[in-house]
Amino acid sequence: MDRRSFLFGTGTLLLSQLLAGCNTQERAKLRVQLLKGSLPNQVLQKFRTKMQQTASLEFASVEQLSSLFDRLQSWQQNNQKPIEEDWRSQLPLPSWLKPQNPNPANLVTVGDYWLAAAIRQNLIQPLDPTQLSQWSQLPNRWQELVRRNQAGQFDAKGNVWAAPYRWGYTVIAYNRDKFQSLNWKPQDWGDLWREELRDRISLPNHPREVIGLTLKYLGKSYNTENPSQVPDLTAQLNRLQPQVKLYSSDTYLQPLILGDTWLAVGWSNDIIPVMQRHRQIAAIIPQSGTSLWADLWANPIQANSDRALEYQLIDFCWQPQIARQILLFGRTNSPIPLQIDPDNIQAELRPLLVPNDNILDKSEFLRPLDPEAIQQYQALWQGMKEKS
């Protein structure tokens, strides 16, 4: 799954359950569309059990972030179209049998990288943090992530547009078997340039990630506004190109497992399940810092519901005992600070699931850039790819 792109597949899998009796229509309803696997089943079941006496719940599990963003767009488009009149509309039918626009979900998973576009395109509406009892428990970095202005830019005085419920890192994964003969293990971004890895690594098919890690290697920020002005950046990108066997954001792990590549840069939520199944795969967070990603709850602008239910789900995910389950069962980090006994986490996964404050402080979310900066990144990317 590619966390950073609008260009990949949109296959979906619907897993819905309505916890309602014969009086369903009289009960409040909460429709949630979330990224598949982003919440453990144990957490979803506990929320169902908690709410079954007061609300009807419908969860749809969707395969890709791109599909969820497409749905946000389609709901907005449908909302702008008049409902077509046909013969059924002339009959004295119950309202639920009459033709109508598809109902949008009340809460939807949005990746942090997509948040700015969702705001600019008027696809979501702000949340009210005063209605979230756990909001004050969120560290500043998470509050800053979702406070944006109308252009989707970070703004300390902006609205709260979403609520994070899990997060992770861009990491370096490697095949232990292949590195045994090298007598060293990857530690930081600079290792990608070592001669032993020529034509043996895979990188995400994404300019912000690849150019960003190169900027980090040079001591700069992932969010550098004028990358074309950074000395030695173009030269380092040209040196990195011969190291790359393939660029992929969604099919990079199988070659690593098979040994066709020795090292891959990818996202922790992709790599941790592979580490659990294939013991020859290990991963590290680069010592100089990396890019961060987060999955967020967002409220579609067309949603018409009792928003108290939405806030209850957000607060539920932020309860310390539930946040602990997200970490232990979902194998991803929670934005709520937790005291976890490392012995409860598989030894190989501890570096990825027990935050290192020193590395975390050096890491960054990919911020929205202005059009001129985006053009510079695209030009550098095109120049690098032309060398292949």
UniProtKB/TrEMBL annotation:
InterPro entries documented for this protein: Sperm_putr-bd
Location(s) in or outside the cell: Periplasm
GO BP: polyamine transport
Keyword line: Periplasm, Signal, Transport
Record-level GO cellular component terms: periplasmic space
GO MF terms held by the record: polyamine binding
Protein name: Polyamine ABC transporter substrate-binding protein
Protein species of origin: Chroococcidiopsis cubana SAG 39.79
Upper taxonomic lineage: Bacteria, Bacillati, Cyanobacteriota, Cyanophyceae, Chroococcidiopsidales
